[in-house]
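just leaving the lab so this will be short. what follows is a protein written twice so to speak, once as letters and once as structure tokens for the fold. can you read through it and tell me how you think this chain folds. anything you notice is useful, everything is just below:
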Amino acid sequence: MRTLQLAVAIFSLVAGPALAANHEVQMLNKGAEGAMVFEPALTNVAVGDTVTFVPTDKGHNAESIADMLPAGAEAFKGSMGEQIVVTFDQPGAYGVKCSPHLGMGMIALVVVGDLPVDKDAILAVKLPKKAHERFESIVSKLP
């Protein structure tokens, strides 16, 4: 019996991290929603999952939007033209931008966990007009 308990404990430790999923978001000059986009613009993940932001087209980065992070979450900033992998450990909504193309509306939203998203808080963040319009579109798709 003790051996079985030890085996289950070891398996739980080894298998735990393997259960996290990786999601991929492309950074594109042109996509289904127009110019300068993240695809998908809305990504739903579980706590502990990762998102790989891929600069499919050159000249993009992915970084968190300072006023769109859950409490306790760490900001992130990828280098220009380089892939960045972000692990999302705190539940909530994370705004993501491409720094040089924010004015053109290059934004995304990563929703972590099953908590309700505060849509009003997202839309209250001061952003360029095109970025705000894209967030309005994304928020309209949330439950």
